[in-house]
């Protein structure tokens, strides 16, 4: 029952994404739960041997918990670097053909402490600007020469502000602004692959590429993220060391957010009206253009240097990370009007948002449904074949049913054959027959 193991691993990744501590007995207990729910049997014991093999197959390690957060597992970095470089060599890839993408949450219209209150509203209990967030997905190659359009996921499928606008980003709507497997797969097939193929062709590179990702629950499998010709594929980072070696986590996402916040403050003080009103007028169109501007402002040398921990051989000269600064005049003006201290504003500008989950969280029932859908793909393919077969006319179906019923009356029939005849009757539009014949047929089935 491979679907049981798939469900367990999906559950494990989701729990680890929330930094929940997972023990061996917890894995065994959850494995038995999924086995019972999927197979409707209760004869699986989840032995220690099975558990060790399951952990080995998926590279699950026992790690030490520090405080409330699981520590990064630095011991798996060197083995992964060797595997990564070996794959790059086997595929004969240039740094221009190796990409990395990573999601991050962004509170796009909120000041420090997740609130923004004008001077007139500061004494009104409970009044504050609603919290709004999006998920962003930047992606670029290791050479820093190709930065794809940024992905932005909002809650609305078709924001009114986007009407008749040529967007500078790839925008998707999802009710919780989360990344899902379907959205990621759609982006990979419709955006990543075509953009990469075109760029490689324009710059005379072979049509081969590798996309490096973390093993988040919102990412499809490596098999799903592989083109039919096998020339563009994905590779996953090992669990619990993403923050240490994933390029997008090495100041790239932080730069984009800091630059975006700086521009947000500049916009807030640029108009001769209350800052709160300016931010309320700041809509999704303004957001995507501001994010695109911040993404374009990132130097290519910074993108390239972000690979130094994973791929140090491609870094030939040291690169200083660009500094994002906001003038003291802007800080002072925003501080005066919002009643937020200058120190808090500066910390907010420099710091990263406290990210909420950017992936769709699935319940146990959702996980079971997901793996069950995967196992019925072959059946769905067969349905497609049947759907394209020549159609039988209504009259032919009626005649076939009549012959079948006559044969059944003369020779006797089994229960399954009667069920088949009943299905044929439904599909043959028996309503054509008069009530007497219909009644006779029903009495025959009842008697049988």
TrEMBL record:
GO terms for cellular component: nucleus. The keyword DNA-binding applies. Gene3D superfamilies: Homeodomain-like, Ribonuclease H-like superfamily/Ribonuclease H. It comes from the Eukaryota. One of its GO terms (molecular function) is DNA binding. Its main location: nucleus. It is found in: Nucleus. Residues 1-64 form the HTH CENPB-type domain. The keyword DNA-binding applies. Keywords: DNA-binding. SMART domains: CENPB (SM00674). PANTHER family: JERKY PROTEIN HOMOLOG-LIKE, TRANSPOSON. This is Jerky protein. It comes from Ceratitis capitata (Mediterranean fruit fly). The gene is JERKL.
């Amino acid at each position: 029952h491979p679907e049981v193991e798939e469900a367990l691993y999906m559950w494990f990744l989701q729990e680890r994404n929330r930094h929940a501590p997972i023990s061996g007995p917890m894995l065994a207990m959850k494995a038995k739960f999924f086995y019972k729910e999927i197979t409707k049997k209760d004869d699986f014991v989840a032995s220690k041997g099975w558990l060790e093999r399951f952990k080995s197959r998926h590279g699950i390690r026992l790690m030490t918990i520090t405080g409330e957060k699981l520590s990064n597992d630095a011991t798996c970095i060197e083995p992964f670097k060797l595997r990564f470089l070996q794959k790059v060599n086997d595929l004969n890839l240039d740094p221009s053909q190796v990409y990395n993408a990573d999601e991050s949450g962004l509170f796009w219209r909120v000041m420090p402490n997740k609130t923004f209150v004008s001077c007139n509203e500061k004494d009104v209990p409970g009044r504050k600007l609603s919290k709004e967030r999006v998920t962003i997905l930047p992606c670029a190659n290791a050479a820093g020469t190709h930065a794809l359009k940024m992905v932005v996921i909002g809650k609305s499928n078709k924001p009114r502000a986007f009407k008749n606008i040529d967007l500078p980003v790839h925008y998707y709507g999802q009710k919780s602004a989360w990344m899902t497997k379907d959205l990621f797969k759609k982006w990979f097939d419709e955006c990543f692959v075509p953009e990469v193929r075109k760029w490689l062709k324009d710059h005379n590179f072979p049509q081969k590429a590798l996309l490096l990702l973390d093993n988040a629950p919102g990412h499809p499998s490596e098999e799903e993220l592989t083109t039919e010709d096998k020339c563009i594929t994905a590779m996953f980072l090992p669990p619990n060391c993403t923050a240490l070696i994933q390029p997008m986590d090495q100041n790239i996402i932080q730069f984009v957010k800091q630059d975006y916040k700086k521009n947000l403050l500049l916009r807030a003080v640029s108009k001769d009206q209350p800052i709160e009103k300016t931010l309320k007028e700041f809509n999704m169109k303004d957001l995507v253009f501001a994010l695109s501007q911040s993404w374009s402002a990132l130097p290519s040398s910074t993108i390239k240097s972000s690979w130094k921990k994973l791929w140090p051989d491609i870094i030939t000269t040291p690169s200083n990370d660009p500094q994002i600064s906001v003038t003291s005049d802007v800080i002072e003006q925003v501080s005066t009007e919002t009643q937020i201290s200058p120190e808090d504003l500066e910390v907010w500008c420099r710091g990263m948002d406290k990210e909420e989950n950017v992936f769709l969280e699935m319940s146990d029932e959702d996980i079971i449904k997901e793996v069950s859908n995967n196992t019925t793909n072959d059946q769905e393919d067969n349905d497609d074949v049947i759907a394209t077969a020549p159609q039988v006319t209504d009259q032919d179906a009626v005649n076939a049913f009549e012959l079948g019923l006559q044969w059944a009356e003369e020779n006797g029939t089994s229960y399954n054959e009667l069920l088949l005849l009943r299905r044929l009757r439904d599909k043959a539009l028996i309503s054509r027959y008069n009530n007497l014949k219909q009644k006779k047929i029903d009495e025959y089935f009842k008697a049988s």
